[in-house]
Amino acid sequence: MSELDELKRHIRTIPDWPKPGVMFRDITPLLQDPRLLRAMTRILVERYAEAGINLVAGIDARGFIIGPLIAHQLGVGFVPIRKAGKLPFETVSATYDLEYGQATVEVHIDACKAGDRVLLVDDLIATGGTMLAGAGLLRTLGAEVVEAAAIIELPDLGGVAKLREAGVPTFALARFSETEQ
C-alpha cells in the first residue's frame, strides 16, 4: 500500500454528520498517529521545499494544525486566517456563501505584503468558498498564492474547479467521491 493510500485509509468517514446525507471526513485519526502525522507533513514539505514560499497561511481551524507544521519545516512564517471577530489587530475580511448562509474570514492587514509567496492550507477542499475567500484576502494584501493545499479533496462539490478558475492551483493528499465510504 502506498503512503498516500495509507493516509486516505486513516481518514474516518462519518455518515450523516452534521446532517443527513453528509459524509463527514474526519482527519483526527491521522493527527493521532505520530507516524502518519510525520508522513503527511513530510509529503507536503517535500512538495513545497523548492517553491520559494516565504509564508504559510492556514484557515481556521484545521489549517491551524497543518499550517504551522509545514511552516516550521520549511523555515517560514505562519499566517492565521480566522473567522470574523477573532483577530485583535486591524483586518481585511472576505464573506462567502455557505450551504445555509454566509461566513466571513479575516486576516491582519500586515499578515503579508506585495511579493510574498504564500501556501494556503486547510484540511478540506469541498465547495471552495473558504479557500477562495482566503486566497482573495492574501491577494488583496499583494501576496501571490502559490497553491491551495489540503489533506482531502471532494471533487464532486466543485471547489477545486472554482479555485483553478480563479487562478489558484490546488493539491490534495486524498480524494473522496461524495458517496465513498
TrEMBL record:
Keyword terms, alphabetized: Cytoplasm, Glycosyltransferase, Purine salvage, Transferase
The reaction(s) this protein catalyses: AMP + diphosphate = 5-phospho-alpha-D-ribose 1-diphosphate + adenine
InterPro entries found in the cross-reference section: Ade_phspho_trans, PRTase-like, PRTase_dom, UPRTase/APRTase
Domain Phosphoribosyltransferase as annotated: residue spans: 30-153
Broadest EC class assigned to this enzyme: transferase
Family that this chain belongs to: Belongs to the purine/pyrimidine phosphoribosyltransferase family.
Described purpose of this protein according to its UniProt entry: Catalyzes a salvage reaction resulting in the formation of AMP, that is energically less costly than de novo synthesis.
Name recorded for this polypeptide: Adenine phosphoribosyltransferase
Organism lineage string: Bacteria, Pseudomonadati, Pseudomonadota, Betaproteobacteria, Burkholderiales
Protein's gene: apt
